[in-house]
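Person: Please comment on this record:
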Amino acid sequence: GWSLPASATTTTTTTATTHTIELVVAGMHMTGMPCNGQLTVLGAEFVRSARTKPTYRLFALASGTAGENQEAGLVRTTSASSISTAETTGDAIDVEVWRLEPAAFGQLVARIPPPLCVGTIELADGTSPKGFLAEPAGLDGATDITSFKSWRNYSVQVS
């Protein structure tokens, strides 16, 4: 299994300063995943595990091999209600929140390949940090993995 960084096991709540940016990650940048080093090398600090509001869908994008160098794509939907089409309903997705200095945030964002992008993600705790999302155009050939509720759960199934 994946273990959380030491900072995640403390009981003290840390609040962000005005000089840092919180970033939500939902896939390969999560703790223990292959791209997590892209965060840690920039001095990013793990803040907390969280869940999105139930208005998101999670996709395994078509690039890469299932579970190996494959990117997660988080997409905000139009509703959390029981509308009959899957494209318009969402669910709560497990994510991680990391904190970076502004310069490090800029360096990371400059390296994000399409169809990934950065936008505002609404979390169940009422906060709205920036985070990785997927452009809808990047969903061609993607697999909807929302039912797994997290990239970790999906990764375990395909490995």
